[in-house]
# Entry
Amino acid sequence: MAFVEIMNITKYYGRNPAVNGLSFSIEEGEIFGLLGPNGAGKTTTILMLATVIKPTSGTAKIGGYDVVKEPDKVRSLLGIAFQEPKSTWVDKPIEIVEWHGRICGLRGQELKERVKEVMERLEIWDQRNKFFYQLSGGNRKRVEVAKVFVQKPKFAIFDEPTAQVDVLGKHAIWDMIKELRDSGSTVMLATNDTNEADIISDRIGIMHEGKLVSLGTPSELKDSIPGGDILEIQLNITPHDEMVRQLSDIEGVSRVVLSEQNMLRMYLNRGEELVPAVLERISRFGAKIRYIKMKEPSLDDVFLYFTGERG
Amino acid sequence: MRGALFLIGRELSKTRRYKFFIAMRFTWFAIQVAVFGAVMSRIVTIPKFYEFYLVGVYSSILFTLSVFISYEILEEAEDGLFEYFLSLPMGRWEFVLGRSVGCAISSLAYTIPMLLLVLLLLGNITPFSIALSLFSSLLFAIGISGIVITFVSLVKSSDVSDIVFGAVDAILVRLSTAMYPLSAMPSYYRIPSVANPITQLAEFLRYVLSPDVFSYTYFEPPGSAVAFLIGFSISAFMIGMLVFERKVEGGGWR
# Structure
């Protein structure tokens, strides 16, 4: 059953659409990863769902409540960890997290215990009485996500929850997000970290230029790339347009992408059969191969394929 | 209503951090009334001008501080807190009410030492005078805070807000009876002066604290000042609520 339904939602800033006719749904109790490059419209989408900004057209329903017509009811269901940690510089982590818990309805011993447990797991309990400005960027981020873990909302939104957080901290946050899902919350995770999306998302939507360009489970997305194999070739020269055109013309090659450091990335069907033809075409141009590798697609490749950008 | 109470509590907890600022402001105020006020009252021939002046300077300072404290929403926006508040489980009306009343109580907390000094100098420290002074000051501060918060959240520009409230401060304080009585004003100044919340607060406080001064400097019945202040605070809240529900959204701060 869909807990979140986004229906043709659009947001214009001036004449520019930040989100353009976006539609998808999130099932109850799943972690939905919203993946996209910077400026894809992820944060704008999240802010519309959180009723912080108003859609120019279209709407969304969360738990059956319309974000445009029933924003108060929507806000009673959700908790959001923003991309940029939100606090004044003179607040202390313990005050920030406790105040958030209280305004979301927690009280007494339950609040104190939950705050302590969450802050200990995120390794910020020892820093609870420091001023916010004294915390590192990673710890500020932990304070931001701690609010949502203490709240345990029906619909939890995380906007790049592990940016600036170290590897151990990332794993702690990912584990806690999964536990939040297992305890019954529906989770939306906006990120441009393909690894993060791959590890914890049940399903992933890829946004590009305000639109959804692909949607599915991580494995479905990996299988969805035309040409299931990826051939990476680094040359001694920068591949020119004619070489790219001739390589694209080989039957079974679905796409050729030029990336950094003289690197060609080719999406192929039956890759192992096409390698000789590819090498022959390259040799016609007098180019030498410095490095060649055939691999299965990762979510990075999916991201790159649909957005044409590095994740 | 719960959300509004939490916001009020948050504002008050912030006030505790600014003890030095409150002490500094009080010192300035004490110097103002001890030096400037005393000297002015020797120059001005109006009877009991010093009493007139004490109430006026308190009213104008309460106005300035209410604007100043409500203005913090701009700093909070820079820290991203505005978007955070808009995402919390409360209605927009709770946000406007909580912030307006919270900022108003904070403004009172800053000025209570000044008010007590005024009452002391006027020789009128009674539970009745304190209660009425605080009540009218709170209504006034709620109205001012509501207007400032709504305007700032709508225009989302510190430059525009600085210019507008600089002009408003200059006009409202000078076109009020804070520093000079209505009876001394040219007739064309009197209408805007009477429609001015600073005038209404100052005159009501004079009526409560120094009735002799009120009776010869002002022409309106004192009940009208209370009605004005109640209407002013409620109107500011209603306008704020409508603007927040229909127009205000996160982002776009300049």
Notes: Chain A has a mean pLDDT of 89. The CA atoms of residues 122 and 229 of chain A lie 39 Å apart.
